Amino acid sequence: MNSSLALIWTITAATTLLQAGNGLLQALMPLRMQAEGISVASIGVVAAAYGLGFSTGCFLAPSFIRHVGYIRAFASLAAVVAVLILAMTQAHSTWAWIVLRGLTGVTLACIFTVTDGWISARATSSHRGRILSIYMICTKVALMLSPLGIGLGDIRMDGLFMTVSALITLSLLPIAATTTTEPAAPQGVRIEVRKLFATAPSAVVGAFVVGLVNGPVIAITPVFGVSIGLSQDQAAALLFALQAGSLAMQWPLGWLSDRADRRYVIAGLAAGTSLVSLLILWASTQGANLLVLWSFAAWGGLALCIYSVCVAHACDIVEPGQIVSTVGTLLFSWAAGVTVGPLFGAAAMEMMGPQGLFIYSGVASLGLVAFIVVRILQVDRSPAKGGFAVVATTSSAAASLTTRADVQPAEELPSVADEPDQNGEASAVARADTAS
């Protein structure tokens, strides 16, 4: 156990610093754009650019890592991100924000491929769950707490952007100082949306709707908070509540989904998301700020956990050798949703006021409920056998889970996560809740 920790402490420390900067940026950027007079619709376009860049980066990353290796890839990409963040201090037009945010999406996706692949390769079979849990806690806490730093500076000044850049630059130090050998580089992944939809349509549609809903909510939440009368630090605390709720609910929901058809869990989470969206609507119009905060925690505990259950449902169905392709395909489906979702969410806010974001969230979630219910009526499935195993947690708002059902023990059959040339893609599932 101690030797395994020694192998991952550098990448854990680096990713924790990176996520601290990323979490602060998620709160800072929309508030800065709003303060500069950029419309909510334009902020949605910027968020969509991030989704498009992120999905592009997911597929560029394996070849880049193969070319330069994990350590050089992380170092060069982190340096680029730090420069892009500094460039944001000079962004005064929507097009400038679109370009810079799109480029950060590409580079962060590549970085998360590096970190996910590294940690998956270094976590041994006998300690995999505990090692990845430690990794998850460190990076998750950084992503949760860092938005609260918005109250330590003035969003109209450049200090907070410099802080983000400094945190990302500091993430280079553990990587540069590492004395361990880097993992084998990943190979490519095949994207087969039509084939997977024929096999597991609930998972594909679920991943797409997760992008449609979670993308705009995470991206525009700080603007929503300010629009309903919260202070800037209170608006940033809503992001903390989303992440805290997702962390608290991930494991109980994983336990529940092991004991029933996972589609029931997906439908229940989507229905709960719709109901909590209505609660947020009511609480925000009544000025009940504390209830809004708790409602956001509940919303995060429901909506941000759907993707993991979708992945587990799909992996229950496909053959073990198809899991990497399945994960990549679901990531692509999520990326498609997160690219267009912020456009719809921002348009809803423009037409109906700040509450329009959660009207949109509630309607989209109900659409997923309707689709899943139809599928349950059409096809009966038995509850999954076996439990969940954490795959990786670098960039997610919630722990990412892969089913263990029908897979032999590690001594008999190597798991997908143990294949050195697949780690980057296998753990790409963990990136799907970063969408802002």
Brief account:
This protein has helices spanning 2-35, 40-68, 70-87, 94-122, 128-145, 159-170, 172-177, 193-199, 201-227, 232-257, 262-286, 289-303, 306-317, 323-352, 356-378, 423-426, and strands at 388-390, 401-403.
Tell me the series of helices and strands, N- to C-terminal.
HHHHHHHHHHHHHHHEEH
Class based on secondary structure composition and strand pairing: mainly alpha
Strand numbers in spatial order across the main sheet = 1-2
Beta-strand content bin: under 5%
Rg, nearest Å: 20 Å
Q: Gap between N and C termini, in Å?
A: 35 Å
CATH architecture: Up-down Bundle
Number of domains: 1
Which bin fits the share of residues in helices?
over 70%
Q: And the CATH topology?
A: Growth Hormone, Chain: A
**Low-confidence residue ranges:** 386-430
Assembly classification: single chain
Name of the level-1 CATH class:
Mainly Alpha
Shape: globular
Detailed description of the structure:
72% of the residues lie in helices and 1% in strands. Helix 9 runs parallel beside helix 14 (323-352), helix 11 runs antiparallel to helix 13 and helix 11 (262-286) runs antiparallel to helix 15 (356-378). The chain has 16 helices and two strands. It has a single domain, classed as Up-down Bundle (Growth Hormone, Chain: A). A two-stranded antiparallel sheet has the order 1-2. The protein has helices at residues 2-35, 40-68, 70-87, 94-122, 128-145, 159-170, 172-177, 193-199, 201-227, 232-257, 262-286, 289-303, 306-317, 323-352, 356-378, 423-426; strands at 388-390, 401-403. The protein has 436 residues and is an all-alpha fold. 61% of the residues are buried.
